[in-house]
Design a protein that fits this description.
Shape: elongated
Structural class: alpha+beta
Strand order of the largest sheet: 1-2-3-5-4
Helix content: 40-55%
Order of helices and strands: HHHHHEEEHEHE
Largest sheet: 5 strands, mixed, barrel
Distance between the termini: 28 Å
Radius of gyration: 30 Å
Number of strands: 5
Number of helices: 7
Strand content: 15-25%
Length: about 210
C-alpha cells in the first residue's frame, strides 16, 4: 500500500514539477524588463503603490499605441492616451484567503509526506513479534489504467494485523516467499516509522522478517 501510494504520488509530483517549471521559466523571462525597472524605482525611493501605478500606466500606454497603430491603418481617429491610474488603498487579507493559504500548506505537507513515504519507512525501524496466521501473494495495480503493477506478499498475523512484504519480492518469487511462512509460528518483522505512524489500522509494510519460533 505504501509503495502504491508512493508511485502514484511520484507520477503526479513529477508531472506537476515539469508543468510548474515550464510556466515559471516563461514568466521569469517575460518579466525581466519589468523586474529591472521595478528594482530601479525601489532604489530611487518609490513605494510599492507607485511602482504598481507606473506599471499600469506603461501597460495602458503600450496598449493604446498598438490600438492607435491599427486605427491609423484603417483611416480612423486615434484614441487619447489613458489617464494616470490612482492605486486603491491596500486591502487587509480576509479570513477566507488566510484559510486558503493554510489549506494549501496542509495539502503540500501531506503530498510531501506521501511522496517521501518510502524513505520515511527506512527511518527509526522497530522490530515486532507476531504470530503468523497465513501468507499469500498479492498483486496490485495503480496509475492510468493499471499501468503500474506492484507485487508483494500479504501476511496475516494474530496480534499485529496484516503486514505487506515488498522488499525483495518479485513476480517470480512471490509464491515461494508466501509458501515459506509457517502458520502458527512467531516471526519478527521490521517496520519503519511511516507505517507505524500513519498506517496503524491498515496494511503496514515490513522491510524484513525472520523466524524466531
Amino acid at each position: 500500500m505504501v509503495v502504491d501510494m508512493a508511485v502514484t504520488g511520484f507520477m503526479f509530483g513529477a508531472l506537476g514539477q515539469v508543468i510548474a517549471f515550464a510556466v515559471a521559466l516563461t514568466l521569469f523571462i517575460r518579466s525581466m524588463p519589468a523586474r529591472r525597472r521595478w528594482a530601479a524605482h525601489r532604489e530611487a525611493g518609490w513605494t510599492t503603490a507607485q511602482c504598481r501605478a507606473d506599471d499600469a500606466r506603461r501597460s495602458g500606454v503600450e496598449h493604446t499605441r498598438m490600438l492607435n497603430a491599427r486605427l491609423r491603418k484603417l483611416g480612423l481617429r486615434p484614441v487619447p492616451p489613458p489617464t494616470p491610474w490612482t492605486p486603491p488603498p491596500p486591502k487587509k487579507p480576509t479570513i477566507m484567503s488566510r484559510l486558503s493559504v493554510v489549506l494549501f500548506l496542509v495539502m503540500l505537507v501531506v503530498a510531501a509526506v506521501i511522496f517521501a513515504s518510502p524513505w520515511l519507512d527506512t527511518r527509526v525501524v522497530q522490530s515486532i513479534q507476531c504470530e503468523v496466521v497465513s501468507a499469500e501473494p498479492r498483486t496490485t495495480s495503480s496509475g492510468s489504467r493499471g499501468s503500474v503493477t506492484t507485487v508483494s506478499v500479504l501476511v496475516k498475523t494474530q496480534d499485529c494485523g496484516p503486514l505487506a512484504i515488498h522488499w525483495g519480492v518479485t513476480g517470480d518469487n512471490q509464491d515461494e516467499i508466501a509458501a515459506s511462512f509457517i502458520p502458527g509460528a512467531t516471526y519478527e518483522f521490521d517496520v519503519g516509522w511511516f507505517s507505524r505512524t500513519f498506517i496503524k489500522n491498515g496494511i503496514q509494510s515490513a522491510r524484513d522478517y525472520r523466524l524466531i519460533g
